[in-house]
Write a structure and sequence with these properties.
Length: 66
């Protein structure tokens, strides 16, 4: 399980072109992957209740008469 805590005393620089952690994520369960994405979203955007939900966009289409 992913623990939602950021350690501010550790800093690591990684070359993203050479980093290959795809094998690690392929071995994780889908629930663990979603939890990781949610954790990264909270780190970037905070724990805002509004941003926790997906925005719904509705469009009304007019049908042509034949």
């Amino acid at each position: 399980m992913i623990r939602e805590q950021i350690r501010r005393d550790i800093f690591e620089v990684t070359n993203l072109h050479e980093a290959d952690d795809s094998a690690y994520w392929r071995n994780r369960k889908p629930v663990e992957r979603l939890r990781a994405v949610e954790f990264m979203r909270k780190v970037m955007f905070g724990n805002d209740r509004v941003s926790q939900r997906l925005q719904r966009v509705l469009t009304v289409a007019q049908l042509k008469e034949n």
